[in-house]
């Protein structure tokens, strides 16, 4: 007699399969006395993706002029596609405008918000020449949220789940339970993309040494590991809601890069603290880069500033070329580039 199939892990069981806590030394350079024993991380100028997909461009019109004005020359030269996150009431009208315009920036997919009313989806364009993915805002566990997610996943859609909650154990548990329940009968072609958790909301006034052992960071580590166990689930690396604008990266002067500001150094240290556990859990093949903050976020961030900050942070973490290519473009192409 053959053995029965294994019982799926519950959300509470998965939560205990967290990676070990990363020491503070993982995010700071070695002391002068030991520096000769460690290789220097690659220079940010030497770590660059072959092609780039910006998988989170929030728009309320068909005009991408702001994106173009804020993008660096490298980003413009290597961009191979964007994923537009629509923030409008009349989705059908905007989709029609996008279809009628010839954009210099290739549109890989358009993510439209939707809901379920009386068992039927509402908000999805009746027809479209541009690839359509779906988006939903998740703030708490509810039958309506699970029903909407279940419908989208059973029909093989890519769904951006924009997480809007206070990052505590209870909220994480409800998200895990909702995603697990909704994906029970998912089509193998469907994909969940979690937004606004990498990095999560943070308090910049809390010193890094205290953050490392803080309950919110411990919860982030544990639940990032748990979320990664849900099949066909990816996570987006987006500008965080840290109540301050993303620090700028000034252009080189005479070929020499200006020294980073203290604010930028602090941001990079924190970004690396959050990217580290995400890499342990999801790997570099399930992290997707985007430049716009969540549509529901109050964060301020310019396209080029976030791109430079992420590029330098990944370089300092020692991510190899294959991983850089995947995070900046390959993963988004795999998820959003497939037929919807």
Automatic annotation (TrEMBL):
Annotated region described as Disordered, given as residue ranges: 1-42
InterPro entries in UniProt: Metal_Hydrolase, Metallo-dep_Lactonases
Domain of life (superkingdom): Eukaryota
Matches recorded under SUPFAM superfamilies: Metallo-dependent hydrolases
Protein name from the UniProt record: Amidohydrolase-related domain-containing protein
